[in-house]
Amino acid sequence: MKQTVPSLSASCLFISLLLAITLSCISPAQSIGQDVLNDICSKSKDSSFCLKSLNSDPQTATTDLLGLAGISIKLAKTTVDATYNFVKSQVGLVTDPTLKKQYTQCVESYDDANDKVDYANERLKAGDYGGVGVATSACLDDVSDCEKPPPVAVNVAAASTISLSEQNKESYELCQIALIISNRLSGKN
Predict the structure, then answer these.
(1) 116 and 158 in contact (C-beta within 8 Å)?
(2) What class does CATH assign to 31-185?
(3) Are 105 and 68 in contact (CB under 8 A)?
């Protein structure tokens, strides 16, 4: 009786077919949908600001949750940097010692917040989503230390104080969005 041995080309074809089927079942990271974005932003203090901020980055439409975490950290970094620079510029404009002390404290708080956002980015790259949450939560604490803008002094324009209040709110919101996304990555919500 003659036994049939499959040819090498038939075996290669079978393995290739099996590999193609397996790879088609493994989908690449799915982009988040609007419903996920809405859910994330519903957990923030200002959902419309959250949606507007995240949608300001064109990559949001095609990214996955991990990419969205990176976008939120990048947005937080940009705003925290801008607020730090703004507050630092105000320290030199005030002569009232109490006011100068308050602005100096804000500079220190935002310097710390900058470090926390940088650390959150490092943790994200390392896949440590819990670490991202800890860092972004600490960023919220640092920003909150400067939550109430110093009173307006005679030599500081009211617009500067209003601007600090707005920038501080934006920094807080963006750190909070990064925290919400990191919690979702960690499976906490």
Answers:
(1) no
(2) mainly alpha
(3) no
